[in-house]
Design a protein that fits this description.
single chain, alpha+beta, 6-stranded mixed sheet
């Protein structure tokens, strides 16, 4: 084991058996993880990659290296715009079988429209924030931190990957950004008690950074709906269309071409007015403060969980936490098949060989948020 991280702690708290599959069934400092396949295409991870490219270019980089799903592996390539990343992802998506694309329940066009709306909604914030620099002078985008835990008798350090660290030109100080693409934005309690936010703040402060707060950068994974065209040659004016102003206006331009302004100011004027400021349903940035008592509590629980891990039972009778959601096709446990087979006395080695691989630590792995 080379480091403790939020993913490791969260998995142990969720199910000791799933933790055992990932870490005890793999040799050395490796992890047992599912083979990369079409499941690499999630709206959340797709959108996160576009954000990463945008933020690195915002920080002044000329080219950005990305890794995209390619068959059952990941391929590296350099891009100089988020549009190039979008095109590369779209190409690989189109190589999937039709049945596989149908299972994913989204399209590249959805992602492109959603990201364009995201950029437009937050365009003014590019002036408010500046991408921070790390101590070595590199941009603070998708970077790894490491802090020792020896004072608590733990020889293995804490590690984590930060999405983005910015300077707030209005409020001052440094702010941690964490990108979350979700179906539904969580409530305040979940944000305030997030161990990830508090542990990242603790670690960065220990490393000498002036951390003032944490910002959850939320985006809805469902793209705004394109309004349907009616028989009379105009767009639907239905009140219940789940769309935003930018998407509806773009649909007007696509349908009416050179006459779009005429239609926008007459036929669609009332509809467009009703859609103003509706983008807030898709994009939110929620700040949380990082008071010392809450940081101390999160750190204490983190350390206590590490001691539980180091004192845990290993071998045949590792306890499992079985829930009705374990076997869900989407969002269920990655080790459900192994768990059921082993519980019933079957040899799971053929399943491991077929469906899993051993990889190095994945503290930097983007967690897909589709809650």
């Amino acid at each position: 084991m080379s480091a403790y991280n939020q993913s490791r702690i969260r998995l142990f708290r969720k199910c000791q058996k799933a933790y055992s599959f990932r870490y005890d069934y793999a040799p050395g400092n490796q992890e047992l993880v599912p083979r990369v396949s079409k499941v690499g295409f999630y709206r959340g991870s797709w959108m996160h990659m576009l954000q990463q490219v945008h933020h690195r270019l915002w920080a002044g980089e000329k080219e950005v290296e990305i890794k995209i799903p390619k068959g059952r592996a990941l391929a590296s390539m350099n891009v100089s715009s988020w549009e190039e990343a979008q095109a590369a992802l779209t190409y690989e998506y189109e190589q999937l079988f039709e049945e596989e694309r149908a299972e994913l329940d989204f399209s590249p066009d959805d992602c492109e429209r959603l990201f364009k709306s995201y950029l437009k909604f937050w365009e003014a914030d590019d002036e408010r924030y500046t991408v921070a620099k790390l101590h070595d002078g590199t941009p603070a985008v998708e970077f790894v931190i490491e802090v020792p835990l020896k004072q608590w008798g733990i020889t293995i350090p804490f590690k984590g990957q930060i999405d983005l660290l910015v300077e707030d030109n209005e409020l001052g100080g440094l702010w941690i950004w964490d990108h979350k693409w979700v179906k539904n934005v969580p409530d305040d309690d979940e944000r305030m008690m997030s161990p990830q936010a508090l542990m990242y703040a603790w670690a960065l402060r220990r490393l000498g950074y002036d951390i003032r707060g944490f910002l959850f950068n939320y985006g809805r994974t469902k793209a705004p709906t394109i309004p349907r065209m009616l028989k009379n040659g105009t767009l639907s004016l239905a009140k219940n269309i789940d769309t935003d102003h930018a998407t509806y206006l773009e649909s007007i331009k696509d349908l009416h071409q050179k006459r779009w302004k005429e239609y926008a100011t007459t036929v669609y004027a009332e509809k467009l007015e009703s859609l103003k400021d509706r983008e807030v349903l898709w994009f939110r940035r929620e700040r949380i403060s990082l008071e010392k008592p809450r940081v101390k509590q999160a750190l204490g629980e983190f350390i206590a969980t590490i001691h539980d891990i180091e004192d845990r039972r290993t071998g045949v009778f590792v306890p499992r936490t079985y829930q009705f959601s374990c076997g869900w096709r989407k969002g269920g446990c990655e080790y459900h098949g192994l768990c059921v087979s082993e519980f019933n006395g079957l040899d799971i080695q053929p399943l491991i060989k077929k469906n899993y691989i051993f990889e190095g630590e994945r503290y930097g792995e983007t967690v897909v948020e589709e809650q």
